[in-house]
Amino acid sequence: MTTPSGAKRDLRPAGCGGDGCSARDPWPLHHVRHRTVFCRLCTSCVLRYHPGSFCVSCFDLLLDGGGASPVVRCSRCSSIAHSACVLEAAPSFVCPSCSDAGGSSSYFSLGEEKSIDLKSAKVLLAAAKLAAASMGRVAACTRADAERKTKEAVVARKRAREALEKVLLLSQSEKEKKNRVADQIAAPSPQPQVVDSKKKMPKLSSTVAAMVGQKRVQNRERDRWMRFQEPIGMGQTLVQGTDKNKWRGMKEESSKVLKVGMLRRKKLLLLADCGPVVSDRLKVNILTIKCSMLQRISHVLYSCFSDGTNCAAVNASP
């Protein structure tokens, strides 16, 4: 859909945008920012929007140092003029705009030929400088605003990057935590062993412990029954009145009994090394042998003493 030319003129008017301006097709138009609003004004409207910035008689800008000389203010508005340029007294000074308030006064009026004289050139130069200063201030403010926004954008970008890195680290840690939990569920970790400060002996296996216990029992039984290998001391004193040959025979008989008993005990002790199954039977046999040995020894001693007594009685008889 094509846009008509009239709509374009409405969107961007070609005339002056000043309030109460009656100029028709003004030339040139200046870009000025007035009260935070961008406007396209003619030369006269630019000067009317900046009444205290130039001399209304010579059109010298006071911003360039033209205010060093004394000035006179208008009694009706804020316009100023150099004292040297004004012929009237200061209290009764009225600017051209206020003096021709009812008429259509203009600082920059061109004829049909649009010729520019010295006064028009000064007016155009003053308006152009004021417009340039206004747009320079706008450019400085815009530049400062752009730099501020650039710094804010850099800070925001840095914060966004840090936030993304933090989110990435959190996601990785959460993923690792889930993996550890899954691994623990799949293969439970062994219970931690409590290490005692004191050194403990290493535990033996059940087979080795049984063999060690069996060996200790066998050694204890051997030490216990080896005591019977010691020879029993016999009295060396002879009974009065006994025969030496008979006493020698009884002594040989008792030593023979001891030797037989010792040989039997050795055989039994050798059999005891075969295992704990035979040890109970060996104990019974050893006790039986011990009783029989004691019985025979006591019988020999009894017969010895009884014979000695009889011999003594026979020798004592007449």
Q: What's the structural blueprint in terms of helices and strands?
A:
Layout: H1 5-11, E1 30-34, E2 37-41, H2 43-49, E3 71-73, E4 80-82, H3 96-99, H4 118-186, H5 206-225, H6 244-272, H7 276-316
Antiparallel strand pairs: 1-2, 3-4
Helix pairs in contact: 2-4, 6-7
Summarize the structure.
This protein is mostly helical and 318 residues long.
Walk me through this protein's architecture.
The chain is mostly helical and 318 residues long. Among the domains are: 136 residues, no CATH class; 74 residues. Helices cover 56% and strands 5% of the residues. It is built from seven helices and four strands, in the order αββαββααααα. It has a two-stranded antiparallel ribbon with strand order 1-2. α2 packs across α4 and α6 packs antiparallel against α7. The chain is rod-shaped, with a radius of gyration of 71 Å. The termini are far apart. InterPro entries: PKC_DAG/PE. This is Phorbol-ester/DAG-type domain-containing protein. It comes from Musa troglodytarum.
Helical proportion, percent range: 55-70%
Tally of helical segments: 7
- In total, how many beta strands? 4
- The main sheet orders its strands as 1-2
Q: Multimeric state of these chains? A: single chain
Order of helices and strands: HEEHEEHHHHH
Q: Beta-sheet strand percentage?
A: 5-15%
Q: What integer is the average pLDDT?
A: 72
Radius of gyration, whole Å: 71 Å
Pairing-aware structural class of the strands and helices?
mainly alpha
Separation of the first and last Cα atoms:
182 Å
